[in-house]
Amino acid sequence: MADKELSFWDHLDELRRVLIRVLLVWFVLAAGYFVAMPYLFDNVILAPCRNDFVFYEVLRQIGDSLGLEGDFFTEDFHVKLININLAAPFFIHISTAFWMSVVTAVPYLFYEIWRFIRPALYPREIRGVRKALALGTVMFFLGVLVGYFMVYPLTLRFLSTYQLSALIENQISLNSYISNFMMLVLCMGLSFELPLVTWLLSLLGLVHKTFLRRYRRHAFVIIVILAAVITPTGDPFTLSVVAIPLYLLYELSILMVKDKKEEETDSEEETTDGAD
């Protein structure tokens, strides 16, 4: 209760300490990634460029089991990057280390948010917020994994082998590869927070299951527009690869939230239990 009686400036000072701790964690992680970046670049970031990447093995197994003979499923796949900017390797080294630290620091960021808001919550709210932050962490990393293992390899495999003319040879620059890689992986992680955001809005009484079902078609259009913004290339294939998981997340959101009548029933039951 003492924490709830802190003044505005005390809360502001506590927020400042939270930001300092988060920035310090980001800096330490970024420094570690900067040191380990040569290994990470070869074995993680550039892994989708090689034919032995795990998702390409899955595609070959799918092609073999279904008897598909198209090059998309059967061909050996390799991408060789080029660099045409003198300073690009150095700045990409720094920026990649920073963004990887941001991604991996998400659990600690949620932990700091939890510590900051917990004193102002009631016991029933504490359980709900704890569940929301845990769900948010899991869904974020699930989105990152989907982006890394499926969305980006599919995008790279399709676009790098697409030919407008036989006279044009595709050469992918380092800057183009990294910008697409970071954008898609990070945006997929953020996009997987959609069920959590919807659930929180339902707790505030702003959305309900009937509402989400009624505007399903509108949501599909919005998701396609959002996918077009997320995807740097804007091609239909990449758009579909991003939009389909987002729409599935929307359907998951419908399953997670309650209808208005169900919430009123639960509220009445809690009132009855409290009276007893």
SSE layout and pairing:
Layout: H1 8-45, H2 54-66, H3 71-74, E1 81-82, H4 88-104, H5 106-117, H6 123-161, E2 172-173, H7 174-191, H8 194-203, H9 209-214, H10 216-230, H11 236-256, H12 260-275
* Class of secondary structure makeup: mainly alpha
- The coarse overall form would be globular
Mean pLDDT: 81
Number of DSSP helical runs: 12
Could you give the distance between the termini? 27 Å
Helix content: over 70%
Strand content: under 5%
Strand order of the largest sheet: 1-2
The count of DSSP E runs of length 2 or more, i.e. the number of strands, is 2
Gyration radius from CA atoms, angstroms = 23 Å
* Low-confidence spans: 267-275
Order of helices and strands: HHHEHHHEHHHHHH
Major sheet details:
2 strands, parallel
Textual characterization of the structure:
The protein has a domain of 109 residues. The C terminus is likely disordered. The longest helix is centred in the middle third of the chain and has 39 residues. The protein is mainly alpha-helical and 276 residues long. It starts with 7 loop residues before the first helix and ends with a helix. Helix 6 packs antiparallel against helix 7. It is 76% helix and 1% strand. The chain has a two-stranded parallel ribbon. The protein is built from twelve helices and two strands, in the order αααβαααβαααααα.
